[in-house]
Structures are given as structure tokens and as C-alpha cells.
Amino acid sequence: MFIYDVDKNGVLAFSSRVEANEARLEPGFWRLTNVREAQPGSRAVRAASQSIPSNLDDRTASERFNNPQAIAVWRLPETIKNTEKAGFSSVPFQLRLHQILATPVLFAAMSVLAAAFSLRLMRLGGLAGLAGAGVALGFAFFFFNELCGALGKAGVLTPAVAAWTPPVVALLAGLTLLCYTEDG
């Protein structure tokens, strides 16, 4: 931990560096064991334990430091179980797991949409409008995907619905557009 003091002008000034083998967050403070503290201009001091006051609580720490994007896919089910066992919300982790599982459907949808937009013959004209429609559809899909993700994180939609709806809708839209383009 890097500890800073605030002077009367509101400027942070480095105070000390604390290293520990283990840090546990207790209500109102951090409990450090096997501590080594170094202050500028002096030698490091060792101690068996030390307490540092903190206004951080378990829930805030869990929400702030557990990033679902940083956890490997094969560890997500275990993380979901452990998070629920600890009494915290596992919705972000469930959403991430479902988003990863829905990725092949998303890739298939993007391929079908690309095929639908690229099969039109050049001699028929209107390629600029078709390209513009493809870009607009891409932005609309991105917005829809982000909206479903936000609704899933907020608990408005279940994680499975929030993760699987955008790829399935894009795949169905792509197949519809492809059939319409091919059948004329």
C-alpha cells in the first residue's frame, strides 16, 4: 500500500509504503500480517501485524475489484458459486459467461448479415445505399447489444436473456434479409 497525507493546500504527499504477506479487510480497517513499512529517508521497519483504517467495506471492494472481463472463462462457474456463497450478486459474472457462450451465434449472425449485404449485384446499382444501410445496421446492433448488457447488469433482464437476445435477433434478421435478397 502506498500511503499519502493531504496537506493544508489539498495536495497529496507521499508518506510511506507498506508491504505485507497478507491483508484482510475487516469492518473499518485493513489487518496486515508480516508487515514491512518504509518511509522516505529511513530504513524499513518490520512488524508481525498492523492495522490501517479504511472506509472500504466488503461489498464495495467486491464490486470495485472483481472485473468479470478479467476472469478466465473456465473459472467463471466457480466464481459465480463463490460470489453467491459470499452473499454478493453474481449477475455480472453470469452475464459474462452467457455472453461468451453466445459468441459463436454472434459470429454466425455477423457472417449471415455480411452475406446478405454482399450478395447484391453491382449492375443493379444502389451500392452506396446498401453500404450505408449495412453500417447503420451495425451501429444499431452494437447499441442493442450494449443496451441488453446494461439491462442485464441492472437486473432488469436475466443474464441469459440479456446475453442471448442480441445474437439471436441479429441471426434471425440476417437470415430474413438473406432470404429476401435471394428470393428478390
Number of helices: 6
Spatial extent as radius of gyration: 26 Å
Extended strand count: 4
What is the 3D shape?
elongated
* Span between termini: 66 Å
DSSP helix fraction: 40-55%
Largest sheet: 4 strands, antiparallel
Could you report the average pLDDT, rounded to the nearest whole number? 86
Low-pLDDT residue spans: none
Number of separate structural domains: 2
Order of strands side by side in the largest beta sheet?
1-2-3-4
- Taken as a percent bin, the fraction of beta residues is 15-25%
Given helix and strand content, the structural type is alpha+beta
Q: Spell out the helices and strands N to C.
A: EEEEHHHHHH
List the helices and strands and how they pair.
Elements: E1 2-6, E2 12-26, E3 29-38, E4 45-53, H1 58-65, H2 76-85, H3 91-101, H4 103-118, H5 127-154, H6 159-183
List its salient traits:
184 residues; alpha+beta; 2 domains; 6 helices; 4 strands
Report on the architecture of this protein.
This protein is α+β, with helices and mostly antiparallel strands. It folds into two domains: 2-56, no CATH class; 61-183, no CATH class. 53% of the residues lie in helices and 21% in strands. The chain has six helices and four strands. The chain has helices spanning 58-65, 76-85, 91-101, 103-118, 127-154, 159-183, and strands at 2-6, 12-26, 29-38, 45-53. A four-stranded antiparallel β-sheet has the order 1-2-3-4, with no helix packed on it. Helix 2 runs antiparallel to helix 3, helix 3 (91-101) runs parallel beside helix 6 (159-183) and helix 5 (127-154) runs antiparallel to helix 6. The model has no long low-confidence stretch (mean pLDDT 86).
